[in-house]
Design goal:
By secondary structure, the protein is α/β, with parallel strands linked by helices. It has an 8-stranded mixed beta sheet with strand order 3-2-1-4-5-6-7-8, sandwiched between helices. It is elongated, with a radius of gyration of 21 Å. The site of (2S)-3,4-dihydro-2H-pyrrole-2-carboxylic acid has 4 residues, from helix 7. Belongs to the pyrroline-5-carboxylate reductase family.
């Protein structure tokens, strides 16, 4: 497969992560272009990644094989409607915007190959995970190109149903925030137990990192890893029983249901 030329519309945080990942994988700067309304942001991204960052979205997409829509969902309709006349048949559109469906994008851009993705912020460290959905117009080569793009910042997983992007948003799109909430709560609780704040924080963060690395590397599931920490009638059992008495698992399910519902609601509100 020849190296595709990629244009990013919007050069904010997620676009910068993707551009950084592509550059680290050896994609030539000449094959990446971006556009952004902010002069400072354009200079910053151009300097960091050695790519051309222009003001005009229409200029950015000239000659591109892949157009990545990386603006906020709230401006996506305006951005797409203005961009539509500049797009060529066969250009693949990859959208990373939360709550914007393929149907809305096709209504604003015209029927074309579209891949809708939900990445997450650990993409900044190339430790992200994304769910991807391709509409019927996307070719096998374009599927591969979209997968390579998202794989530059972590793991890319295909979904057969677009509706499941809402569930991906609930699990991994918003997911980093759930772990940060647990980190905040554990640090605060450690402090209340008498630890200096810094110590409580370091104990919490290194434990989160170690547990995640163990779970990823392990050939047994999280439930078994948990059992291995939990001595009969010991300290872990005392804590886990307390979590469960408070309805921990049901609360997690309710929280993810709320995020899944909100993702679907946003798609309705921001849609065509
Ligand atoms: N943050 C997250 O956890 C996740 C975010 N996403 C999605 O990624 C997308 C980008 O998010 P993020 O990178 O955090 O947002 P940012 O605000 O950092 O980036 C968006 C960029 O687009 C620029 N922009 C605004 N209007 C236009 C326009 N008309 N044409 C071109 N560029 C424009 C903005 O400039 P200015 O600031 O000057 O307005 C900004 O630099 C969103 O759609 C979001 O839903 C997906 C998964 C997770
Ligand atoms: O909170 C949000 O709506 C976005 C989508 C996933 C992460 N942030």
């Amino acid at each position: 497969m020849s190296t595709p030329r990629i244009a990013f519309i919007g050069a904010g945080n997620m676009a910068a992560s993707l551009i950084g990942g592509l550059r680290a994988q050896g994609v030539a700067a000449a094959n990446i272009r971006a556009s952004d309304p902010g002069a400072e942001q354009r200079e910053k991204i151009a300097a960091e990644h050695g790519i051309s960052v222009v003001q005009s979205n229409a200029d950015a997409v000239q000659g591109a094989d892949i157009v990545v829509l990386a603006t906020k969902p709230q401006v996506m309709k305006t951005v797409c409607e203005a961009l539509a006349p500049s797009l060529k048949d066969g250009q693949l559109v990859v959208s990373i915007a939360a709550g914007i469906t393929c149907a809305s994008l096709a209504a604003w851009l015209g029927a074309r190959p579209i891949v809708r993705c939900m990445p997450n912020t650990p993409a900044l460290l190339r430790q992200g995970v994304s769910g991807l959905y391709a509409n019927a117009e996307v070719s096998a080569t374009q599927r591969e190109q979209a997968e390579q793009l998202l794989s530059a910042v972590g793991i890319a997983l295909w979904l057969e149903e677009e509706k499941l992007i809402d569930a991906v948003t609930a699990v991994s799109g918003s997911g980093p925030a759930y772990f940060f909430l647990l980190m905040e709560a554990m640090t605060a609780a450690g402090e209340k137990l008498g630890l200096p704040r810094d110590t409580a924080e370091q104990l919490t963060l290194q434990t989160a990192l170690g547990a995640a690395r163990m779970a990823v590397a392990s050939d047994v599931d999280a439930a078994e890893l948990r059992r291995r920490v939990t001595s009969p009638n010991g300290t872990t059992e005392a804590a886990i029983k307390t979590f469960q008495a408070g309805g921990f698992e049901a609360l997690v399910q309710q929280a993810l249901n709320a995020a899944d519902r909100r993702s679907a609601e946003l798609a309705e509100q921001l849609g065509q």
